[in-house]
Amino acid sequence: MKHFELFYIAGNPETRSKVTSDSANPMTKKKAIEAAERLSGNGWRCWVVNARTNERVFESGTEITYQGKSVSEFKSAKKKLIDNAVGFNEYENITTWDELQKAACFEHEQASFRASQLDEVVNAASYAVEDN
Length: 132
Description:
alpha+beta
């Protein structure tokens, strides 16, 4: 499906700010990300957006850094998510802060639910111990 759009800022990210919409838009997700990866090799800020959801599905390292989030911070946060996630997932495929945030929120909600279930077990066990 061709509903992905590539945007970029050509040149030095410190001195340039004009956002360009790629002339081939809309594209398939694969083609848009391949093109973005080529542009990111030039050190340009670039990102790919799902035009239907307005969600970024790819950000270049330069874009991540420009947004104030270093690549090492992203990798660290992603590792922490993967290390603390429960069950099967595809979190290793996460490439954007937006995807990372959604996955972390999901895991947090699930952890809160599991904690509340365990609270019930603790309370039941506490009453059982007191009765003996």
